[in-house]
Amino acid sequence: MIPTAQDATRPAEPIQWPAGKRAAAVLGFDMDAESVVLAINPEHRRRLSVMSHQAYGPVTGMPRILAMLRRHELRATFFCPGYTAERYPDLVRRVLDDGHEVAHHGYLHEAIQGMSVQQEADVLDRGLDALQRITGQRPVGYRAPMWETTYATAQLLLDRGFLYDSSLMDCDVPYELAERPGDGARSIVEIPVSWSLDDWEQYGYLPDVFGSGLIEDPAKSLSMWRGELVEAHAEGTCFTLTAHPFLTGRLGRLRALEDLVTTMTGWADLWVTTAAEVATHTRSLGLIPRAFPQPEI
Amino acid sequence: MIPTAQDATRPAEPIQWPAGKRAAAVLGFDMDAESVVLAINPEHRRRLSVMSHQAYGPVTGMPRILAMLRRHELRATFFCPGYTAERYPDLVRRVLDDGHEVAHHGYLHEAIQGMSVQQEADVLDRGLDALQRITGQRPVGYRAPMWETTYATAQLLLDRGFLYDSSLMDCDVPYELAERPGDGARSIVEIPVSWSLDDWEQYGYLPDVFGSGLIEDPAKSLSMWRGELVEAHAEGTCFTLTAHPFLTGRLGRLRALEDLVTTMTGWADLWVTTAAEVATHTRSLGLIPRAFPQPEI
Amino acid sequence: MIPTAQDATRPAEPIQWPAGKRAAAVLGFDMDAESVVLAINPEHRRRLSVMSHQAYGPVTGMPRILAMLRRHELRATFFCPGYTAERYPDLVRRVLDDGHEVAHHGYLHEAIQGMSVQQEADVLDRGLDALQRITGQRPVGYRAPMWETTYATAQLLLDRGFLYDSSLMDCDVPYELAERPGDGARSIVEIPVSWSLDDWEQYGYLPDVFGSGLIEDPAKSLSMWRGELVEAHAEGTCFTLTAHPFLTGRLGRLRALEDLVTTMTGWADLWVTTAAEVATHTRSLGLIPRAFPQPEI
Amino acid sequence: MIPTAQDATRPAEPIQWPAGKRAAAVLGFDMDAESVVLAINPEHRRRLSVMSHQAYGPVTGMPRILAMLRRHELRATFFCPGYTAERYPDLVRRVLDDGHEVAHHGYLHEAIQGMSVQQEADVLDRGLDALQRITGQRPVGYRAPMWETTYATAQLLLDRGFLYDSSLMDCDVPYELAERPGDGARSIVEIPVSWSLDDWEQYGYLPDVFGSGLIEDPAKSLSMWRGELVEAHAEGTCFTLTAHPFLTGRLGRLRALEDLVTTMTGWADLWVTTAAEVATHTRSLGLIPRAFPQPEI
Asked: Cα(B295)–Cα(B4) distance, rounded to whole angstroms?
């Protein structure tokens, strides 16, 4: 007999957004740069073109993205691996100076699949240390590299004082995630993501490293993302888009993203803000935490 | 000399639909949830984000799909693995309470490729037992996980009293499928499916688990499915769509499905109903069974 | 020093089409049915759904395709593996009765990559024997399964009296292909093909057998093929489309193909005919044969 | 502590284009022909259809591309492997006679990943020797096959007198690339490329050799490339498109490219020229070289 899930199998509660707002949108940028490629295989560091492909993010994409956000007077969340912060410290500080949020995104963008809890904790600490050392601030949010988490992740984040995680995919609204089923469990705010609201599947291609081999037209991504945004706005959910500066920083793609942003800002009742703001608001609602019982077979 | 096929190499007979109807459409939802991922590799149970991706189906997608069907006063067929029924018993009962059909979809969404007949039978019984125990009803229909069947499947289903199967792909109308070539064979109603009328190829992506790596725009799926629907309506076939709540339950995709449903319900002469109703009607027609002789080389 | 190619490195000569015609179009249907799957792995014969997926071609797709061609009073070429002819003899005879051409397409749709010349010859003879035995006619044309040929293929075909091959991809017009470089070589007519004018890449998906995992909208294929057709018409080349009844026989896809056919038949100066007719015409032109020197490294 | 990059982590400087020009565009054609396939596996030389697929480039695509460029009075850059020059010497000389640039693209289109510096140097010399012997000219530009470079590539190119490389991807404008960080380093002009401005991902498919399995509609590529071009024009960057004659030489694809070219030539302030011209202009600007410090972990 497998156990019946008690909590997270129930739908998450609808969110009451701040006064005048019927839905929320978070623009998240994962500042992977070289880290994600080096994590796949450290030998890729010998491949100059591959490294330069990743460097496009901090070198060319980021200044454009920051300028675009300024044009629209928007604040966004930048999920930054510790390694990126160490390699591009001025850039990370500039992100903060522009009023954006910097959140934790691993140290070397490690996929933690198969790691022990101790290994997961070590990576978390290493990334935290780098971000704190370079920015002088302790991030309140975490997004797992490759959105890969374990049943220990929430507890590890709570032990380190994090307010929110943004790596799960079971719904479209933020909620309180219990660190475990049962009484006495602490909870962390979860801001869910989706593979369909990510630019990686649309644009990511690097031979012998990652990608399906196809590269999509930004017009297609825009159609798909706008379709989802229209419904999120109508339904009152939290539209959480994930973009990578080394991909979406390219001119035609950034134009598509800016077109999407223009749709967003045209709606006075859409709250376009950082993940931290959404998490703080969610925390204020006193929601009943949801727990994920680990499946047994 | 290889044997010349006697029956199934002949086209299936056209179907005379109920009075006033020129074609049929079946909306099928495969409630895979966590099962399909756990069947691929039980170790995926340690990956919280992966589990949450699958939980999107029962937690978020299903309530939306049920509400959409209520809005259009439609009944659909939900193909449910036994494991999903055990993990989400209230949800499965709610599907029945809403007037829909619940059919068999394996126990843990096992791909039976390479299994012995006894193993295939055991999986069938385990799924049947779970559905009966939880719903109090015996399903009349079966859809093989991954649409993977053997030349023993029809016989195993008939031995267990099933009325229909929905896993083959040789035509676009239901027919009587003989359990074997030759005299004295029993037959089961077959409601054929198609990989092109499935949301998996359009939207399914979970790194290290499944997917081509690309994720399609619902506008593309809608264009493709509507194109097929228009022809099915004109030709008098049975349009059988397969959707997964963990995929199509997402907002923009459900909007595309609802647009398709609106096209369907706009035609008074299209019979939109459950697979069981189509099977019962097909059985009433007294069709000559078709047999598939197994190819030899 | 690698040898400089003498002949085939020169562009093929433009074709003077019959009076009143400025370009040609050949509709080719590859009747693979079960063969292509069994050639990949004979064990697939135990997978009923997989076999039924392939049976869609002869059972459902072919009657529709033949009816469509009758509606437009067009003749097409059907490339038929010997195994398909043995399994569906009535169908193959009906293709001939409708005035179409039946050509050679291997015995079990064998990919000859890695075969010896003798093995290639044996497969050729086995397919030839099956087609002759069942249709009473000797085919004049050959299309290699998977368009996989060797530097011995032309000679093997000439030894068996074939008029043309349709498997190479170096240009868009038919030409005389020399069996080898140098004096005294015989030649066979070549009617080139293209991966971009094939429905396999657009629609072909069968898990654990073949396909990229994605399935395209017929509207996209139609746009791509019509774009090529418009240019072929303008340039005076031979538009050679390859479709598979188990793929393009589906309703929405056949609609797209029929739309393309309607474009074709709307141009009085486009010669829509069989590959054999194109080959016979090409042979009458007395073209200088082109030879492919095998690359050395 | 990993070293903080000193130079290349800063954005490249904007380019002051020649009088009257606000942006630049380079049409680059990679004349891979058979070489790229033979480099993957020399045994592919036994596959006649595969060889003919690659021969489409020099045999059919190149004459069309040269004619199209003449129609628009444009000069382009042809990146040519030494092997292609040896196999098609007349074609390479004709490219030069038409006023275009011929640049270095390896000998057999070798992917240098995993090679030693000496091996990389040997391949470079072998390609250089072939081009010089056949054209009587020494190329000033280099594009690495598969855009695969090492941290030694710039030095090797400078030792051989090259003016520019076109293989990196960190920005959208040309710049001076230092052969190494630190004082006294020489520099080479870099004209960056992008996987998204390449026809390979859109059209490249050759079973058992390369490709995702899908083939895209030229209408999609045109939409994507034109979208990027419009932005490049507005931003003053260098739009660098890479096309392969064996892919883009096909009629419908060349029509799409010509439509893009028509957009280009409609703007009087877009400088459409060769990579060598862009490199010479860039060199004249006296830019501060940028260095890529190799990542450490």
From this structure: 9
